[in-house]
Amino acid sequence: MLVLEPQHVHMHQHAGDKAEALQCLINILVEDQLVTPEYLSGLEAREQQSATYLGQGIAIPHGTPQSREYILKTGVRLAHFPEGVVWDGENTIYLAVVIAAKSDEHLQVLQILTRALSKDVNEQVKSAQSSEQIIEILQAQPHSLVLHENLIQTDTFVEDIEDFFWNASKLLKQQKLVDPGFISQLDPQNTIQIQDDLWSISGTGYVKQPAVSIVKAQQPLTFQGSTIKTLICIAANEQLDTDQFNRLMDVLFQPQVQQQLETEQSSNEIAKLVGAETIPDWPSRSIVLANAHGLHARPATQMVNLTKTFNGDIQVSVDGGSFVSAKSLTKLLSLGCQRGQMLTFIAEPNTDATDALEQIILAVRQGLGEEVEAIEDQLTSNSSLNGSQLIEETDSVEISHCGIAASAGLAFGPAHIIKPKKFNYDRFGQSLKTEKEKLEIAIHTVKNTIHQFIAKSTSKDIKQIFLAHLEMLDDPDLIKQVHQGLNHNLSAAAAWHEHIEKAAKAQEGLKDKLLAERAADLRDIGDKVLAVLCNEPEVEEPEQSYILIMHDVGPGDVARLNKDRVAGILTAVGGSSAHSAIVARALGIPAVVGAGDGVLNIDPHAVVLINGDNGEFEVNPSAELIENAIREREYQRLRREEAERHAHEPAITVDQHQIEIAANVGKILDTAKAVSHGAEAIGLLRTELVFMSHNSAPDEKVQEKDYRHVLDALAGRPLVVRTLDVGGDKPLPYLPIATEENPFLGLRGIRLTLRRPNLLRQQLIALLKAADNRPLRIMFPMVGRVEEWRAARAILDEVLQQYPCSNLEVGIMIEVPSAALLAPILAKEVDFFSIGTNDLTQYTMAIDRGHPILSAEADGLHPSILLLIDQTVRAAHANNKWVGICGELAADPKAVPVLMGLGVDELSMSITSIPLVKAQIRTLNYAACQELAQKALLCDSATAVRTLVE
Ligand code: PEP
Ligand code: MG
């Protein structure tokens, strides 16, 4: 990191002109062994391009990128010229800050300098007497207080004061005004009531820049014997502009402001009310900066030169932060924009500036005078489908180029964007009787529509979801809760909406992803009823086949829309196990989910191409890309059909090595489907999902019946059953577990069932009774210590005495690194290992498998995981035991040859993957896979392994 230090300031320098000054600077740099003398040519060339005068008597000479080869070490030196040096014909400098930077570290220096330049320091710089004084002038932080529209949030759903804190801190964090620990210091005891339901809280730790965020709740909350509806959150440090802060507080203490705050709903209006900066509602364009060294002086100068040719105001922000004038060099530099960050330009309407937007975007794309490696090209080289609409978007600052692959296949078509509905309704109703009637009619209407969907639907999965929706609408508890709201004089719409939102929030709060994602179902039915109550028309569907773009797609949305017209689905939120994803898969519609809110800002006339296999998408793809996609889609269809024709043939490599292909199932009824898709066994029966299909804990009898069903459907094929893997992250409603700080590291899997031995015993008995001498394999999940395995085995041995089983193997899941490392010991005692790569990757790489941002980095092909698999396989084979893989990696086409080469004996995967993986294995050569696997073990990253496989 470059820092400005007094010992690097050279006072009392003299130069007759700029050339002499540059020579003087080079002498300093050479003497300090930062550069070789040739760097002078770089400084001169740079000055030729455009003078490096920054303002306030300061210049920042630095070499061209080509002259970087003369830099020995990155550094910065300062020279004070008390008599001044004419720098660019009209401006005289007194201080030169010469930079020798191998990469873009100089942006930090520029940011420091531009902060100083926001004040009038010319005279101070000129008359400075000591190096300390110079540094003090440059580093003096101007006092400030950031408060703008983006820091105000209205209509926020909050349930307690912590929710207020969380939302307020999030706003500050998003704008990079505070560091992540900021919220930790906010204590409800320190809140101060400003007036009525307006409160404030402040924190001084983790503050990067003084700022204020404002959160207004949907409804007032009872708090400390009073109510709170709006929270002012102050992030203060010694740079706080106290004058501005006092002005803000004066405003907030005015009684009429409190009243206006109560009625104002938009953040823009509240911003105006409290004197915060507002974001003009001007035409905007966004683009990702591709310049390797960020928006440093030269490209910034080019931008200023361009924007100044227009009369209208043009402003720019980085990654959704504050807007600054795009005509001011110092303001542009103060943004510190780096490659990959999003610049958003706004232009004053009804002026020539609006025409400027096109030109500015073009200039930025062309590199602002620098050669740029387009971010687009980089993405393309990493992927088959160019997923980089990032390079240019309208009205969007948040579009991410890649979401989560949720349903396989390629699709393209015009964007059909359905934005979250905003319902308008009166908070209070007419009379209890009328509101109750309205609610009843609305629920009845929705139920009728759902019945029609069920009648029309050909997919069993979708029917089941709709049946669940009907059940939700019939839930007496739900109706009772809404009636409570009606009893408090709320309108039917208000009571319904508030309760549904509360219930959905509670559902979302569940740590188990599967259960949490059911919140979408609640909101789905919630919106349907609300739409009837508020008389909201349904959105019209386009005539031709389109890409449906939504915040989240409720199952009802997909099914209601014409399947033949929904070519693909792209959502802002959601995970691959969300119901929308399940429905999309059931209908065979390619889907990319969780792509960020920016997708809702895609131009409604744009064509969108999505790749449901890797989660990438492209806005306005080239004709060539579409042609490729059509070819690829046809190829995929033929390949799948061909693979399905041979699904029942074994998976044998060309050099005659056979591997068992099994299915992962969570629903007992799926067993038959697995067999019909070519499964040679069930390699993982997730019994916790079987449990979840029952409303109360299934007793031994019910369990036995379920397991019997699976074994019957398998007709002699082996069944690998995993004992209950519930715990903090996968709660069963009827198995309460205390809340844990880190559920993934808490009471889970075998750790839980060993503490509830009766539960385990009952499950084991049900399994043994159902087996009837058919091939049964029992395995214990989440084993991390040898003692756990032995304790579980002891319970099984005890049960076996009463319920002997002739065709039983007992093993463990390898999902915890400690178990993989102890495989040589465990292999002596178990009959088999089944490696759960989902959890093994999570625990090895310390990345939450459901993390919205990081989970993509948790790649099971990381060499660290492969080394653990290798160790496990070696240990098992040395003891004549077999090893399966039952995590998602087993069906990853790039992983299949590597896993085979490592010697695993079985691959267990989702049913639909079976035919394709079998077909792939038939094209592989086992000896080559072994060689490949050995090379993969030596790679340094998952990317390297994937490249190797390619
Ligand atoms: C795994 O962790 O890889 C696994 C198969 O178990 P689950 O995904 O059910 O946790
Ligand atoms: Mg697991």
From TrEMBL:
**Enzyme Commission number:** 2.7.3.9
What are its cofactors?
Mg(2+)
User: What PROSITE patterns does the entry give?
Assistant: PEP_ENZYMES_2, PEP_ENZYMES_PHOS_SITE, PTS_EIIA_TYPE_2, PTS_EIIA_TYPE_2_HIS, PTS_HPR_DOM, PTS_HPR_HIS
TM stretches of this protein: none
Report domain PTS EIIA type-2 positions: 2-141
Gene from which the chain derives? fruB
One GO CC annotation: cytoplasm
Q: Where is the HPr domain?
A: 282-371
Where located? Cytoplasm
Protein name stated in the entry: phosphoenolpyruvate--protein phosphotransferase
Question: Could you tell me the superkingdom of the organism this chain comes from?
Answer: Bacteria
Q: Which GO terms describe its molecular function?
A: kinase activity; metal ion binding; phosphoenolpyruvate-protein phosphotransferase activity
Its recorded reaction(s) are: L-histidyl-[protein] + phosphoenolpyruvate = N(pros)-phospho-L-histidyl-[protein] + pyruvate
Q: What is its main location?
A: cytoplasm
Give the originating organism.
Acinetobacter baylyi (strain ATCC 33305 / BD413 / ADP1)
Q: Which PANTHER family match?
A: PHOSPHOENOLPYRUVATE-PROTEIN PHOSPHOTRANSFERASE
Name the UniProt key words of this record, in alphabetical order: Cytoplasm, Kinase, Magnesium, Metal-binding, Phosphoprotein, Phosphotransferase system, Sugar transport, Transferase, Transport
Provide the family line.
Answer: Belongs to the PEP-utilizing enzyme family.
A GO biological process held by the record: phosphoenolpyruvate-dependent sugar phosphotransferase system
